[in-house]
Amino acid sequence: MNAHTSFPASDFFARMRQRQWAEASPQAMLCRAIIDETHDVKTFVFSAASDRMFCFNAGQYVVLHLTVDGAAVARSYSVSSPPTRPLDLHITVKRTSGGLVSNWLHENLRPGDQIKIEGPLGSFNLDGLPSEKPLFLAGGSGITPLMSMLRTLTDRACDLDLRLIYSARSPRDIIFRSELDALAARFPNLAVTYVCSKADPSWAGPTGRIDGPMLLRLVPDLGDRTVYACGPEQYMKALRDGLGQAGVDPRGYHEESFGGCPGGVAPDAESAVSSSVHFTRSGLEHRCAPGETLLEAARNCGVYVPTGCQQGICGTCRIAKLSGEVAMHDLGGLTPEEKSAGYVLACCSRAQGAVLLDL
After folding, report:
1. What pTM was estimated for this model as a whole?
2. CATH class of the domain comprising 269-357
3. How far, in Å, CA of 82 to CA of 126, rounded?
4. Which terminal residue of the chain, N or C, has fewer Cβ atoms less than 10 Å from its own Cβ?
């Protein structure tokens, strides 16, 4: 890999890291601008209220800490801007039906408002997962961390062989389309393909759901590439199945997923009724209701647990389990080392009998 294609940050960015905001402490950020991307997607542009620059790896996410309807809530969002532009930070949010935070952001946040942001977080990032031939696979708003990666690579004028396959519901749902088209026109080493699941009669591009034959048709050298993927869980499952059909080596596959339901496996009702959680530092004991997660148990006792995605992805709600057994249905929010050390995710773990937590 030559000087133009290496991913690690330069000395300039290493120096800037000394001024990055602290992961363990949410910092006040000022909303500078709001950009309409599509009919239901907005990008919120932030700058640091203190004298700090944003230093992170392309692909990472941040946690927004908000007060909605009088209650403290936190949600994780991938950063869509690149670390090569450190003076502001972008998050791109799709408004969803019933989405507490996405609706609040779309309806209430205005330029000049301040909110607290924690980060950066996440191991899905360009510098930690380098490749000579990256293939970016995005579904819907899963384009956001991949857009950070593409903006980073094109800002650095890298000469890697870049491919993006972006699946969207319809042409009007393609986020960043004008910018992606401009990047592909400017950089001949970047090829962008859009796939619409419900195209209108004017759409001339590929249509349908992603699967193995489509991937091989669109990317003939699929087996030679390293895959970076992000999208809703339904898309990710179809993608994993398709890549398996195509014989792609799992070691060359990296994903950031969201929108799934990690608690999809219902716990046995009898064991749930007989389960309890003891919060050792708080000195509180709680008998769990059927299906109750550790996060719900903590809230019912008034014990604070920081949360982000609440889907077993971001790892914000990880807590140390001192004893007992839990059923955890996560989507990769803990590293193998954290699991071995006894950490569990409160949002997607349910007690199986008596459990002691370091809270």
Report:
1. 0.74
2. alpha beta
3. 11
4. N
